[in-house]
Specification:
alpha+beta, four-stranded antiparallel β-sheet, 11 strands
Length: 281
């Protein structure tokens, strides 16, 4: 599952958004993931631009009206030097959007002897960087236009901290370190399921309720070609299912509960009559 690249403060609880907006005359930067959780907005809020990647895009705002453009540019350059931003900008792959055939066709397996090659290792490195840049909690190779069965996942303490405690509990969500799995094979360990909203980088600005198994087993090869097995539950199990679906040419909208599809702006609106309640079943 991925975050929305065109992220804005209106998608955050007001208290979180305010933390990301420094007063005029300060360096304003923040890295906040959208983690597909349901937030309640209690007041109208007009967003200001949000910097999603503080390492590469620092916004330096100066106060007063006497600063001309050359002065502003010079201060930005100095800020970049001070913060170690002088490195060469990386050219990362773009996220492929819904409609591209690569997202709607099964991906092919990676031959074990290929895994250690510069090509495959480069693809994995790019996937991790694109996922973190999103920021997101998972990415499949087809989402960067590569029809190979590779997924990467990571849910950090920082990401989890932006969710409300009751949501973390309901979703059974816990942070976990980076996982890279080549040729993953997934099977459910029980018939217990849960319903929650999901989103995808390849389907910008929308959400829908998807029913997922609560416990799964995933086997495959790690980035070094060694066997790996993960027993996942709760939110991690949901991420695995979302990413493995990508490898089969399936998007979450292909599995969504009818009449739950909506824009992110309408995420807080109640579900239509007859729709199942969110949570474990």
């Amino acid at each position: 599952m991925e975050a929305i690249p065109g992220f804005s403060h209106r998608l955050l609880p007001l208290s979180t958004a305010q933390k990301c907006l420094n007063k005029k005359g300060s360096i304003g930067f923040c890295r906040v993931p959208l983690l597909h959780v349901h937030h309640t907005r209690k007041t109208a809020y007009k967003p200001r631009p949000l910097c999603l990647n503080p390492i590469r895009t620092i916004q330096f705002v100066t106060s007063g009206s006497n600063h001309n453009s050359s002065s502003s540019s010079r201060m930005t350059t100095n800020a970049g030097w001070f913060l170690g931003l002088g490195e060469k900008k990386q050219n990362l792959p773009d996220i492929v959007k819904a409609g591209d055939p690569v997202l709607h066709e099964p991906a092919r397996e990676v031959h074990p002897e290929e895994i250690g090659s510069d090509r495959i290792q480069g693809i994995i490195d790019d996937m991790v960087k694109v996922m973190r840049k999103g920021p997101g909690v998972g990415l499949a190779a087809p989402q960067i236009g590569i029809p190979l069965r590779i997924i990467v996942l990571e849910d950090t303490k920082e990401y989890v901290s932006y969710a409300r405690k009751e949501e973390i509990t309901a979703q059974d969500r816990r942070p976990f370190d980076l996982l890279v799995i080549v040729n993953p094979k997934l099977k459910n360990k029980s018939n217990k399921t849960a319903l929650f909203f999901e989103g995808c980088l390849s389907v910008d600005g929308y959400r829908a309720v998807v029913e997922r198994y609560l416990e799964v087993e995933v086997t495959g090869l790690d980035r070094y070609g060694q066997p790996i097995r993960v027993d996942a539950s709760g939110w991690q199990a949901r991420i695995f299912q979302h990413e493995c679906d990508h490898l089969e040419g399936t998007l979450y909208v292909d599995k969504m509960v009818p009449r739950t599809f909506r824009t992110v702006e309408n995420l807080d609106l109640p579900l239509a009559m007859g729709c199942p309640k969110l949570g474990a079943r």
